[in-house]
Design brief:
The structure holds two protein chains of two kinds. Chain A is built from 22 helices and 29 strands. By secondary structure, chain A is α/β, with parallel strands linked by helices. Chain A starts with a helix and ends with a helix. Chain B is of the alpha/beta class. Chain B is 35% helix and 25% strand. In chain B, the strands form two sheets. Chain B has a six-stranded mixed beta sheet, sandwiched between helices. In chain B, strands 2-1-4-5 form a four-stranded antiparallel beta sheet, covered by helices on one side. In chain B, strand 4 and strand 5 form a beta hairpin. In chain B, helix 3 packs parallel to helix 6 and helix 6 packs parallel to helix 7. The radius of gyration of chain B is 19 Å and the shape is globular. Chains A and B meet through helix 5 of A and helix 5 and helix 7 of B.
């Protein structure tokens, strides 16, 4: 059982009737058992073989999480071909590079939308010879000779199977753990996307470690709703599901995920922070519309939960009185709330991909959802560090997972080694050599350090990390994230590399601060006016002081406290090239554009005039000028802070 | 909406024989002549648009076809499985029974009922069991309910409103309510579907979605569609044929390009008088 096709046949032989896959269709959850899934994969593999798919010819997979697309993945692997899942929301242009780079000869697509994209670029992908589609809707007039429906392919496969009954088993037997099992493309925020080649062994070892770590077994249920091209989905919904033999559940459509989640009640769940945030917002909006007594009960017990919920979840000692009131709260509030969120049965929930806000993290843990963090990347099968149940911290990402070695390079970069590492970047020996050194350490590009209890903390991208003039580590992204967790702060830019101390630009969050100002009767005309108010400066200074106090207690980052700041007169905007389309800061550009402001921050001045060009939504440009105030903030002496802690 | 690429070879839809014939129909309300001697036909599987300036008699025409108004003159004939049938004093109920479904300019749904139940009402005429049998779930009632529910679920999937299955219609935004209205009409598996300004009041994206659903229904189910529409670009995009009314008279009838080039139409509708 060292490859995925072998694992599938193993489950089909030992637990033929256990549920392998569910999908909601026509309003009802349809279930396929392991033996049915194995039959589908067999027909599909034989059909693909009949059409000429084999080792060295790869299969692109494009669509939402559909059982047939997961089966196509196993079918390709059974033939020694490599499946290449693509992001289904990518536009056709973005697909061209990957289709050509990965030597895709075959593609299986979910529906007309995806098919039209491939047809649009097919003339530029000469090696793409056959396209298979799952949902025939709208396709009855498509007469291209290279198109096959899933049904036709499966029928072809059954005929091929009848003529060559030994073929499928022989093919599966020929799969080897050291063969590449999947090619996942990195998002490519810097340069062209790179195809990460992972072997059966890498993913199976990662799945083995993760399943043992969280005690996952055949009775677990996972909701498969994140893009199939993303390493997280491949680990959770494919590798771990096939290793442990648990059930994957495919939602009806992208819009119904939350309803479907409530119906399934997954025991194992994975989501980036924004999903948890969206869920929480829904709950809070509904609570605000609730009747007053309900709201009071909710507020009271949420206070109780904040006080002791996380400790109870971690099994810490809590006074009996508080335990009892938590139990009552569980009956009246937390239980029903978990039910509404679809989290009643969750044993293990993970978040990763971005920093999670402290309030958000505590909220879920306090109502009894075992939310944890993990650290990993496409190159490491999303498997490097995991937080153990019972010892979860907001700031760290846990200890190295079973079988994984982690060390910190001199520059602060996190290096990892283990069976989960990529085999290579496809067609990019230069990139492979650059990221894996002679001793087999993979350079993650992330900066981090181990804290006192031996847990890894990730602070920034290594290339952004600098040093203060005094030699202390400076991680701008870390400081900015901490600031952005305050609801009043929308964006922040921290400066400090080769400087005496850290200073920052702040963008206020217009709806939040606007609402705050209205409640206090502060009149304002617009963003620029509001941002310049003394009251608003005081509000933001208060936020920064609180952050400084937290930072002071941190042995590594205590010197990153923000000494002076200003509130920008305009919002940073992708249209003005200050942010990327995914809202990441373009530091170099900002430093150049706002140079005079940065100099003023590091001088003794308390006011500075700046005039900048802005682009309006209709494409016109204009100049906006303002005189900005610069304010000092209290910092905390690190030594004193640590003594107090 | 993803437009099909030019490479995509679209076979010409097979238009059938006429299934509805409107012959010399005149309708007056007191002294107001809403329709004067209008004749046209609708062919099977086609999308026919009826256009015209305000007050040209478009909605009156639709109301005549499905039996809300009775014309003083002229005949309406519909081809059924048993051959051509002429309807002189047809009631809306009769129209529904013989397979004419419609949507309304002002949405006519049960606001307090869920999307699912609203579409289920479209199946009403196809249910064989009585009220009592349905309430008590005796005999074939349950099997029948399952069959109809499946048909409704297919429409829900077709219209991509899975996420709103259980939502009361009154809570949905306008564009989605229009879509549910279309779903209810489709649920009766009509021979002829009448749409009264299906895109009225919609934004561009909603209009594009609605166009796609109408074309897909026409394509997938072969539904014959007669629609009234104001938006000229929509009409030109989706209809096989256009009938133009002006002051209750038919002034043009033909393919969209031909109608657009017709001087009488330009003067009456597209031209400067408006």
């Amino acid at each position: 059982m060292d490859t995925f096709p072998k694992l599938l046949l193993h489950h089909a032989a030992t637990r033929p009737d256990a549920p392998a896959v569910r999908e909601k269709d026509y309003g009802i959850w349809q279930t396929w058992s392991w033996s049915q899934a194995a039959q589908e994969v067999r027909a599909l593999a034989c059909g693909l073989a009949a059409l000429g798919l084999r080792r060295g010819r790869n299969l692109a997979i494009v669509g939402d999480n559909r059982p047939r697309l997961y089966w196509a993945m196993t079918a390709a692997q059974a033939l020694g071909s490599v499946p290449v899942p693509l992001y289904q929301d990518a536009v056709a242009e973005e697909m061209v590079y990957i289709l050509n780079d990965s030597q895709v000869r075959f593609a299986i697509v979910e529906d007309q939308e995806q098919l039209d994209k491939l047809l649009e670029v097919k003339s530029r992908c000469p090696q793409l010879e056959t396209i298979i589609y799952d949902d025939p809707r709208g396709l009855r007039h498509y007469t291209h000779p290279f198109l096959r429906s899933y049904e036709v392919l499966a029928r072809l496969g059954r005929e091929f199977d009848a003529a060559n009954p030994a073929f499928f088993q022989q093919s599966v037997d020929a799969t080897r753990p050291e063969h590449v099992s999947v090619m996942l493309y990195t998002s490519g925020t810097t340069g062209k996307p790179k195809g990460v080649c992972q072997t059966h062994r890498a993913f199976i070892e990662s799945a083995r470690g993760a399943c043992a770590f969280d005690d996952l077994g055949p009775d677990d249920d996972v909701l498969s709703y994140l893009p199939m091209a993303w390493v997280g989905d491949h680990l959770f919904s494919y590798a771990e599901a096939l290793y442990a033999g648990f059930t994957i559940n495919c939602p009806e459509s992208g819009d119904t995920v939350m309803t479907d989640m409530r119906e399934i009640g997954p025991t194992y769940f994975f989501a980036p922070p924004r999903i948890y945030e969206g869920l929480l917002t829904q709950v809070m909006i509904r609570m605000e519309d609730a009747a007053l007594p309900k709201r009071k009960i909710f507020e009271y017990f949420m206070n109780v939960a904040r006080g002791c919920g996380a400790q109870i979840l971690d099994g810490a000692r809590v006074p009996l009185v508080r335990k009892l009131s938590y139990a009552l709260g569980n009956l009246l509030v937390y239980g029903p709330l978990r039910n509404v969120l679809g989290m009643s049965r969750i044993r293990v929930a993970y978040t990763a991909g971005a920093a999670i806000g402290p309030d958000l993290f505590r909220f879920y843990r306090s109502i009894g959802v075992n939310l944890k963090q993990l650290y990993g990347s496409t190159e490491t099968c999303a498997y490097v560090c995991l937080q153990p149940s019972g010892a979860v911290k907001l700031e760290s990402v846990g200890r190295p997972a079973p079988g994984v070695e982690v060390k910190i390079a001199d520059g602060g970069e996190v290096l990892v080694r283990g069976p989960m590492l990529l085999k290579e970047y496809h067609n990019r020996p230069d990139a492979t050599a650059e990221s894996i050194d002679g001793e087999g350490w993979f350079h993650t590009g992330d900066a981090g350090y181990f804290d006192d209890s031996g847990e890894l903390r990730i602070i920034d991208r290594a290339q952004d990390v600098g040093k203060l003039a005094g030699g202390a580590l400076f991680a701008p992204n870390y400081v900015e994230n901490k600031l952005k967790f305050f609801p009043y702060i929308k964006e922040a830019v921290a400066f400090g590399h080769a400087r005496e101390h850290v200073c920052a630009f702040v963008n206020i969050d217009m709806p939040a601060v606007g609402n705050w100002a209205e409640r206090r009767g502060i009149a304002y005309s617009g963003y620029t006016d509001l941002a310049a108010k003394d009251e608003v400066y005081a509000l933001i200074a208060g936020c920064i002081e609180r952050m400084n106090a937290e930072l002071a207690a941190d042995p590594v980052l205590a010197h990153s406290q923000v000494r002076r700041f200003l509130i920008l007169h305009k919002e940073l905007d992708p249209d003005d090239d200050e942010l990327t389309r995914t809202r990441k800061l373009r530091r170099g550009f900002i430093a150049e554009k706002y140079g005079p402001l940065i100099e003023a921050l590091y001088s003794a001045r308390t006011r500075q005039f700046i005039e900048t060009q802005v682009r309006f939504e209709d494409g016109r440009t204009g100049m906006v000028g303002a005189e900005l105030k610069i304010v000092d903030v209290k910092t905390v002496d690190p030594a004193a802070a640590r003594k107090a802690a | 909406m993803t437009a099909p690429h030019p490479d995509v070879a679209l076979a010409i839809r097979r238009l059938g024989e006429p299934i509805l014939a409107v012959e010399n129909v005149s309708l007056a309300f007191g002294g107001v002549k809403a329709l004067q001697g209008v004749s046209f036909h609708v062919r099977e599987h086609e999308v026919l648009a009826i256009i015209g300036p305000n007050g040209a008699g478009k909605t009156s025409m639709l109301n005549v076809i499905n039996g809300v108004y009775h014309p003083q003159q002229g005949t309406i004939r519909l081809r059924t499985d048993a051959g051509w049938r002429e309807f002189r004093d047809m009631k809306p109920h009769d129209a529904a029974v013989i397979g004419i479904a419609r949507t309304f300019q002002s949405i006519a749904l049960f606001k307090g009922m869920s999307v699912l139940d609203n579409i289920m009402t479209g199946r009403n005429l196809r249910m064989r069991c009585g009220l009592l049998a349905q309430a008590l779930r005796i005999g074939p009632a349950e099997r029948e309910e399952i069959r109809h529910r499946e048909a409704v679920e297919r429409i829900i999937e077709f219209l991509e409103i899975e996420a709103h299955r259980r939502t009361p219609v009154g809570r949905l935004p306008y564009g989605l309510q229009k879509r549910v209205d279309l779903g209810r009409a489709l649920a009766s598996e009509p021979r002829l579907l009448l749409l009264d300004e299906p895109m009225a009041g919609m934004n561009l994206e909603e209009k594009e979605d609605m166009c796609r659903f109408i074309l897909d229904a026409n394509d997938e189910f072969g539904t014959t569609v007669a629609l009234i529409e104001h938006d000229m670009s929509v009409v030109m995009d989706i209809s096989d044929r256009v009938v133009v009314l002006d002051y209750g008279r038919k002034i043009a009838d033909g393919a969209p390009e031909a109608v657009r080039a017709n001087p009488a139409v330009i003067e009456a509708y597209l031209g400067t008088r408006h």
